[in-house]
Amino acid sequence: MATQMIDISLASDDDLLVHSGDFVALESTGQHQRLLILNNKGDFKQNPTICVGAFEYLDDENFRELIRAISQEFMKDGMDVKRIDVSKNGTINTDAYYS
Q1: Which of 60, 10, 63 is nearest to 33 (CA)?
Q2: Domain spans of the chain, in order of start
Q3: If pLDDT is split at 50, 70 and 90, which confidence band does 1 have?
Q4: What's the burial of 84, exposed, middle or buried (CB within 10 Å: 0-12/13-18/19+)?
Q5: Which long-range contacts (CB under 8 A, 24 or more apart) does 54-58 make?
Q6: Using one digit for the tens of pLDDT, what is the confidence trace for 28-53?
Q7: Which of 20, 29, 87, 95 could form a disulfide with 82 if both were Cys (CB 3.0 to 4.6 A apart)?
Q8: How far is Cα 35 from Cα 60, in angstroms, rounded to an integer?
Q9: Which whole-number Å values give the CA distances from 12 to 17, 34, 58, 62, 99, in the listed order?
């Protein structure tokens, strides 16, 4: 059974989501996955060894290394990874949840 990860939520512009003057806390597994995939190593001062930096893989013709890096980062973050793939149009599809 997947564990819900509740965290302060981000708005679509990556700013903190605020409602009536308070931060909004929502289920945030997808938000965590997005941050791990898009940010580069060193972007988070508290833990500089996390993240994938997906944009570094743009010129690669084979996405196996990207999928492997994503899978490793998700597992290090405590997720149970079932499936990760990249579609022909470049969309990253994940089936991974905190356990």
Answers
A1: 10
A2: 28-90
A3: low
A4: buried
A5: 54/92
A6: 999 999 999 999 999 999 999 999 99
A7: 95
A8: 21
A9: 9, 12, 23, 30, 26
Model confidence, pTM:
0.88
Phi/psi of residue 26, nearest 5 degrees: -135, 170
User: Cα(first)–Cα(last) distance of the chain, in Å?
Assistant: 7
pLDDT-based confidence at residue 80 (cuts at 50, 70, 90): very high
Per DSSP, the three-state class of 47 is: coil
Q: With residue 22 as reference, give the H or E element that holds it.
A: strand 22-23
Residue 18 CB partners (closer than 8 Å, separation 6+): 24
Distance of CA 40 to the CA centre of its chain: 11
**Alpha-carbon gap, residue 95 to 49, rounded angstroms:** 23
Reduced to 3 states (helix: H, G, I; strand: E, B; else coil), residue 3 is coil
Give the whole-angstrom CA distance, residue 74 versus residue 38. Answer: 13
